[in-house]
């Protein structure tokens, strides 16, 4: 809140000084106010307050003079840390102004009451300021803080969602702060679906490693998301820099080998050793055994893949063609693998046709064959509620971010 307090003090001061310079007053009022102005600029708030009291002691003041005195008193009191006096001066001033001035004074009162930690009054003056037309970023920041203090996360979510929607409708990128506030409020109100959607917007507009990590940790817990996509999620973690732990490298390598992609498994093990996540510590021997296993399985797969491709082509359905085709891609032979996946899709009879489209899009993306635009189009065409569509959309998003 220190930043908010500083903004409040600056706003009150700017308003007071601007008014003092713009209005014509009698010398007996104007002179001490000008001196208060100079003292405030010099950082001498208490001395400035004394000069304000001197101006206020003059008899027969006009309405305009009293307004100027109240403004300067509020500014000096705010700078002096006398929140009570600032509130008193601003509340005296509020009924005497209208229009933009009223909105500004109401906003200043909201900040002043926040310094006094009177959240009820703060909320009331925020509402008055907004009703009068104030829509400053500082006021929105204060409103979010107050709502958080009161635990009104439903209100935070509503306000942040409105800000995000307004930006999207205007064709602008939503503010990162609004998205973060919305995501946090959704988490606190157990709006799991909403939180996932907001995290995806954060990924879309602010593709940071941390946001990818948070989203990928959540996506597997999404209702209906199939366990068979565990390897696919880890592939995305690797691509976004979120695969760093020893156990993650071990698990991903094992999953790749079990899925029939030992070349990919060996590449993961090698990355783990290169990163220092594998090959040391109490489990170093186990890591080396996994590396040896991956190398042996890779050699066996390379020796048998042409025969497997021939057998797959002879099958009535395209399931084996898709599997062997993607294995070719992982071996760096996309020129053989991608046509096989396409043939498998065309042949039909697939157990999971959307999985096949996902593999095709990933193969095109990883190999560069067919162009990024076509790969992204294929990935975005993946349908279903079991996780395949989520993965296709995420790979497409990552591809566009990668340039």
Keywords summarizing the entry:
mainly alpha, Serine Threonine Protein Phosphatase 5, Tetratricopeptide repeat, 3 domains, 77% helix, elongated
- Beta strand count: 0
Based on the coordinates given, report the CATH architecture of the largest domain. Answer: Alpha Horseshoe
Gyration radius, rounded: 32 Å
Low-confidence stretches: 1-22
> What is the percentage of strand-forming residues?
under 5%
Fraction of residues in H or I helices: over 70%
Architecture overview:
By secondary structure, the chain is mainly α. It folds into 3 domains: about 1-135, Tetratricopeptide repeat domain (Serine Threonine Protein Phosphatase 5, Tetratricopeptide repeat); about 165-205, no CATH class; about 230-400, Serine Threonine Protein Phosphatase 5, Tetratricopeptide repeat. Helices cover about 75% and strands about 0% of the residues. It contains 21 helices and no strands. It has helices spanning about 1-20, 25-40, 45-55, 65-80, 85-95, 100-115, 120-130, 135-150, 155-170, 175-190, 190-205, 210-220, 230-240, 245-260, 260-275, 285-315, 320-330, 335-345, 355-365, 370-380, 390-400. The protein is elongated, with a radius of gyration of 32 Å. The model is unreliable at about 1-20 (pLDDT under 50).
